[in-house]
Amino acid sequence: MDQRPGQGRPPQPPQVAFVGRANIDITVRVPQRPVAGRTMFASAPATTTPGGKSLNQALAARMAGVRSSLVSAAGDDPWGTFLTRALDDAAVDVSFFHLVPSASTGVAIIEVTPDGENYIVLARHPKAELTGEHVRDGLQQLQAPIVVTQLDLQPDAVNAVFRHHHARRLIGNLVPHPRLGPTALTPLDVFVSNEAEAAVILGRHHADPSVAAEGLRKLGPRAAVVTAGAHGAAYSSPDHTALIPTQHVNALDTSGAGDAFLGTLAAQLARQAPLPHAVAEGVAAATTFVQIGGR
Which residues does 117 contact at the CB level (< 8 Å), separation at least 6? Predict the structure, then answer.
């Protein structure tokens, strides 16, 4: 009997496309935050690793077992090549990860204190910022059922996501770029932020992350999620608002934990898991992540 092409092969895992930044992370562990005018000695050698929110999220989604694509850009320099190789090694699709001539790859300097807290400064090159054309071309060809985008990108890039995605679910992350205006959350199926970002958007800090999640949902997205560090994460949908707690652990490094959460959440939603289950899996992934030092 003739077999049709592809017949009998296992189905492909679902796909998630991530739209946003990729950069190099240079991490130093310090005994305490530096004091102005004094030199602080790191307690361990500096490490250089792939980073950037969307790159981290793409890696986390791939670790969670889905196909992962990154729509991003970096400089056409040795660090850009380093990022490309790291993504290739992790089996993340780099068809729309562009290396831009005459641009330098962004660098994040991360200080990690003994309690696991992190303090980050990002230096980025404007030529390596995503353009609307780059985003449009990527999303039209990828046709991914789940798209995750940074909302702090240049407005033409974010608007290209809103116009050209073909996703079953569109997930947004971070405080929207100021020029996007108050309706930036409306096109989203899910908006994800941490407590500090939620406070900026809402104009006040809520001690209960569930209240913050509900407040964000009222701004337009169909659902909102607020990550709350050691307290877990809260979600608010039209049907329910709740906090998913996490177990107390010894955190070695919290940098990137939110990205581990979001990448895992997106992978679960790509498998059509209910939002509460996806949030719980994200919390579990982030909890594991901070215990192993984030790298």
Answer: 254
